[in-house]
Amino acid sequence: MTSQERRSALTLSHLGVWSAFPGRTRPGRLRLVPALVVAAVLVLVWWAVTAAGLIAPLYLPAPGEVVARMAFQVQSGLAWRYLAPTLAAALLGMGIAVAVGLPLGYLATHSRLLGAVVEPFIAVSQTVPLVAIAPLLVLWIGYGTVPIAILCAIVAFFPMVTTTVVGLRSLDMRTIETALLDGTNWWQRLVHVEGPMAAPAVLAGVRGGVVLSMTGAVVGELVMGGAGLGTLLTLARDSADTAAVFAVVAWISLTALAFHALVQLLERAAVHRLQGESS
């Protein structure tokens, strides 16, 4: 690499455009600025299109109309009334996925036989559409929060198991051998060696599962019924209230983003505590 290429690479790295060291790239204090700028531009284009009358309000309402509808839903208590059941199902499904997915990923990593048995079934489970699984859950379990939570767990299960397996299999085996030579048992290795080293990958899977769990809750309510945002979305769609549809989609997106941000904060705190560094 010439000196000019090196200077160009350093400039791109400082600007955050491209870095040759992905494992050591750290988000800066202004990491949210690019996303906020792009979001502002998209909203501005959206407003310009609707203000110019290029698209009828039936198909694309104005941003101000959507915000006004969301404000009305907050003031009337409608937003929380429909949001609470969806949150309850998503959180319950997330808990089920964590309780089952992480231990299963650990066991599949250490047992070749178990890994050979469960990994194909885990992959196949993601090929079946949620709308096909939902009616079966209704037949087997019935209606209510539990079947929707199980649907959330199914959709959030895959990234958790996958990242757990990948994180554990990518560990430095020399470190594991050293721990074995020191006479550690499986629990000590998990708590002091394997867990801290694989924490970034495992927690990244949990972060992805949180967002998918919210999606599973809404899909479950659309198919199985309920009292959450999926039901509110169905009511808005049936009444051809496009602004209300956009408002519900906005609530779903904002809730998923809040979940993602919260888990990301917990992930950084956990990695800092386990590895002595921030992610």
From TrEMBL:
<keyword id="KW-0472">Membrane</keyword>
<keyword id="KW-0812">Transmembrane</keyword>
<protein>
    <submittedName>
        <fullName>ABC transporter permease</fullName>
    </submittedName>
</protein>
<comment type="similarity">
    <text>Belongs to the binding-protein-dependent transport system permease family.</text>
</comment>
<feature type="transmembrane region" description="Helical">
    <location>
        <begin position="121"/>
        <end position="142"/>
    </location>
</feature>
<keyword id="KW-1003">Cell membrane</keyword>
<keyword id="KW-1133">Transmembrane helix</keyword>
<feature type="transmembrane region" description="Helical">
    <location>
        <begin position="80"/>
        <end position="109"/>
    </location>
</feature>
<keyword id="KW-0813">Transport</keyword>
<feature type="transmembrane region" description="Helical">
    <location>
        <begin position="242"/>
        <end position="263"/>
    </location>
</feature>
<feature type="transmembrane region" description="Helical">
    <location>
        <begin position="148"/>
        <end position="168"/>
    </location>
</feature>
<dbReference type="GO" id="GO:0055085">
    <property type="term" value="P:transmembrane transport"/>
</dbReference>
<dbReference type="InterPro" id="IPR035906">
    <property type="entry name" value="MetI-like_sf"/>
</dbReference>
<dbReference type="GO" id="GO:0005886">
    <property type="term" value="C:plasma membrane"/>
</dbReference>
<feature type="domain" description="ABC transmembrane type-1">
    <location>
        <begin position="83"/>
        <end position="267"/>
    </location>
</feature>
<feature type="transmembrane region" description="Helical">
    <location>
        <begin position="32"/>
        <end position="60"/>
    </location>
</feature>
<dbReference type="Pfam" id="PF00528">
    <property type="entry name" value="BPD_transp_1"/>
</dbReference>
<dbReference type="InterPro" id="IPR000515">
    <property type="entry name" value="MetI-like"/>
</dbReference>
<feature type="transmembrane region" description="Helical">
    <location>
        <begin position="210"/>
        <end position="236"/>
    </location>
</feature>
